[in-house]
Amino acid sequence: MKIGIVCYPTFGGSGVVATELGIALADKGHEIHFITYRQPVRLNALSRNIHFHEVFVEEYPLFKFQPYELALSTKLVSVVKQFGIDILHVHYAIPHAYAAYMAKQMLKEDGIEIPIITTLHGTDITLVGSHPNYKTAVEFSINNSDVVTAVSKSLREDTLRLFNVRKEIDVIYNFIDFEKYAMQDITDCKRSSLADDNEKIITHVSNFRPVKRISDVIEVFYKVQQQIPSKLLMVGDGPESESAEQQVYDLGIEEKVLFLGNSNEIDKILCFSDLFILPSKTESFGLAALEAMAARTPVISTNTGGLPEVNIHGETGFLSSVGAVDDMAKNAITILKDDSQLEKFKTQAQNFAHRFSLDKVLPVYEDMYKELKANYC
User: Fold this and answer.
1) pLDDT tens, 302-348?
2) In the chain, which end has fewer C-beta atoms inside a 10 angstrom radius, N or C?
């Protein structure tokens, strides 16, 4: 099949999942066309089965904000016509589902019918989509998609609560390609370059937005390092980066915290790690937590959104209420203070993560594509 994938090309979870899905589909022989304003960060190389089409937005003085939706829908029409795309799979409701619907209507004028799958990822529903300025358009786009999926049961419930949705919403969890976490692939891990032998390594990965509660990450680590010799790896970049560095300086722990910026080698970074901290205000799924678990790293997280579906309390890590930094620190110390306890949690985390293996999720998407294409033939 020829599948068009529309996503944000950034380090966020929706873009990562969309890109990894496209790569996996290409490996199975499907022809994949990524359509976005920049090559996705996880798309390291194009191949015979993978194509990238850049959306250009012309700048006109008339517009205060450039009309990306217009440029995207026009590009979708062009790519569908030129390459004979069978299905459009758009990730994130805003603005992708809306632009895809407009493209679908334009294509009808030329006698071309194309099905649209919309995958909801989280903030497009819970934070942005429910805003009065966008709610009607998002609701319309969801109801006019041919198939709608959500990455967790929690997100499906939020969508049904916030919107008047007439479509069925199928839950298809995010996934992990375990080949990237095979031990033979991380033999270059040089743990000694980051920490002493007696120190534990704690990691956080995110886009450093306010919803990630970066200050809580540092506060939890500050409490942990008072009892457990440890280092903190902060991976990512965003609006909270500068204040996080200042907080570290104010607490006097700058020699124990490393800010690594954005990285395409999360799997290699996680191979160093003993514990992962994710104290988010909300997470529709928690892909970063799943990636940590796949790398044998237990998780300390909040109990919000879809996180309890990924991080099992007392088995793969621990859950706490939002803002409960004392409880998170206590749970972290419980895992880290005993090596045998830590090893137990590491093994349990990785074992549970296998439930979200790419091998289990990819066939679900393929069957969906085949059924949808057959219905349009």
Assistant:
1) 999 999 999 999 999 999 999 999 999 999 999 999 999 999 999 99
2) C
